[in-house]
Amino acid sequence: MKKYLPIILFVVGLLVVVGVYFFVIKGKSSADVTSEDLTVAEIPVGERPSASLTPSMDGHWLKMKVLDIKVKGAESMDYELLYKIGDGRTQGVPGTIQLNGQTSIERNLLMGSESAGKFKYDDGVESGTLTLRFRNSSGKLLGKLSTDWTLKLVGKNWELTMNTFAKDGESTFTSSSAFVDGKTTSKTPSSVSPD
Fold first, then answer.
1. Residues 6 and 50 in one domain
2. Do 35 and 9 belong together in one domain?
């Protein structure tokens, strides 16, 4: 037993270090994000971009477009698409984009997962939120925008309705199925209409 004592002590010590890391350091970083979100200044109306989500023909992808990005000092944009699936669990699609002077961004967001070219789609998605966070070169949060969205099947088309963060008051964007797995079809989404 004495010859195994150093190995046992090493394993116990390693478990303590890992536990401290997950409970103290990881817990602190998520608390920092929450407090950071609470204290961030509102983005002035004139600097707000507009955003839209367009569903794919099968309703498993959302094309995110963020246009007219001009948040002063913004070097990167974090996006977070959260949604509930049929069994009540919350799923998400996070990401960070380095702006490098770009004023418009487009991404295809999969509501599901992919492994080795095989897709597993999340079913029962009806609503969610889209949050955009703009950061400077040192990672400091400059501003945050968040909106709810709803997704429903109307006939054979998926329709998504959301607030666009519009500059002149609140506007609602309704789009319908316009692409297949990230490939655009000839259908075009309806235009922005005032609420």
1. no
2. yes
